[in-house]
Give the backbone structure.
Amino acid sequence: MFDIQENLKTLPDSPGVYMHKDKLGNIIYVGKAVSLKNRVRQYFQSKKNMHPKVRSMVDNIAEFEYITTGSEMEALILECNLIKKHRPKYNVLLRDDKTYPYIKITDEEYPRVVKTRIVKKDGGRYFGPYSDAGAVNKIVDLLNSTFALKRCSASSFPEDFRPCLNYHINQCRGICSGGVDRESYLEAVEGAGEFLNGRNGKLIERLKRLMNDASERMEYEEAASYRDYIEAAKALSATQRVVMQHSKDADIVIPARGSEETHVVVFFVREGKLVGRETYEIDVPQMEESKELVSSFINQHYSRLTNFPGEILLVQMPDDKELLEKYLGELAGHSVKLLCPRRGEKKALVDMASKDVIEMVKTIDDRAANARERRRSLGSEIFDILKEMGKVSGDYSGGEYRVEAYDISNTNGVDTVGAMVVFDGLSPDKKGYRKFKVRTVAGQDDYAAMKEVLSRRFKRVFEGDAAFEVLPDIIFMDGGKGHVSTALEVVDETGFDIPVVGMVKDDRHRTRALVYRISNGGEYREMPLKGKTMLFRYIGRIQEEVHRFAIEYHRSLRSRNAERSVLDEISGIGPARRRALLERFKSIDSIKTAELSELEKTPGMNSSAAQSVWEYFHRS
């Protein structure tokens, strides 16, 4: 048994990170310290003057661990990484820190503007993260259309390559045609970068010129499209209400607390103008102080960015100001200052942002209440299904259900795959999605394929695979009674008591009913979804998502197999040459139409191999 008092005596007087654990061994808090000896001991002294949050946490500490570091800076970085990894209950947590999208200008000969959710040190320029993925899509489309930028990922093209539709409708300059001046293209890319930095004046002026030119040519539809882009660009900068005369770049970070939910709002000031804001939802332990909340947010949020301004304006200064400034400066490669302005134009900016946040707080609780009501309504309807099945009794007392849904996809029994999607309450849990390549079933037999998929899924549970250890509260099958019966055979063999429900479609492929087996007697019943609006939409969404996931995997597998089967039949073409050919020509069709001389120029190919490929596709 872990003796806390004895282990306190052995703590070193050095910087490091400590981890408190509960009785189950779960990490419930991660903290940093200049002196582990002094900091950790403070938790186990008198609770008289202890903050309620700390007192609650200490009551749950069963043991602790620590990791020593060479400096307080190393401890800060390690603390940040451990919080992201373990997401402890009593730490401030930035939710879904990997899911916010960015806009990226790629580091290529002809750079592209793309949406991404992964930040890499690859020479590209990243802007964001943004909480509104829909807005990101619109911005990317606007910039690509306005500047006629390259959209495809191909880096080289055969001589006879034909440009795509975007070129023909003047939405791409046609890099593939070989007639594009790189200097003018890079100038256009720089214009897109200026816009993403909040400097949209050049873009709007350019759009106005194009609009006027189109109008003079009496191309009124084209002129109208430019007018719409101008309005969109102006809308994106609608928050430019306060200006700093010194034209500096800064972020303003302000917490927004409702009675039940907490967000942190980041306002972006570029060239002295307030150009926008993003809102990030935060998991906050009860009664967390604002200073600690902001400190934790800055640590986690800015550690994911590759570019941020030299000033971060705050309402309340964190206790670890100097350490955060040093850490952020190392991340950014330039000096970063945390400021709480008391007068002047910066104070005016912060005051204006604070007023916005106050208004936002008024809606946070309303949104939370609406979301809570939706979750309860859905949970109640699922509870009623389980009650009719004989799986539960009494009245619904709240809570959400974890759902797994399955579907099979193939083409005439070939390249059969299975898909599993997961929903926690109303929301998809995409980290829980799984794909299965069916191995034992030949031909068109969805029941057998589904049996294999489910058997493998539960086998992984018994093997101790952490990726499959969380079991669902209910399973939905894309199909009727036959699919439910097949799934129950597998579930019953495992010994798990997991309800299985079939999602039945009508003749127009729309979900019309649910089918399930009653526990006592084995009778099957069908429940129409007509009149059950919430459940109808939820089931429809699950069915569409599992179908999409299955068919996308099937198509990707079919495409890979088709390409491999053709090239692998050619004498002298192994994996390395196959990859080189596909990388150069991008598709089998392009390889078929390539000249012998072009095939010979492919890296790794010699004249004999090129001749074999050419003859294979040109034999009579």
In short: The longest helix spans residues 344-389. The chain is about 45% helix and 20% strand. The first strand starts at residue 16 and ends at 21. The two ends are 80 Å apart (CA to CA).
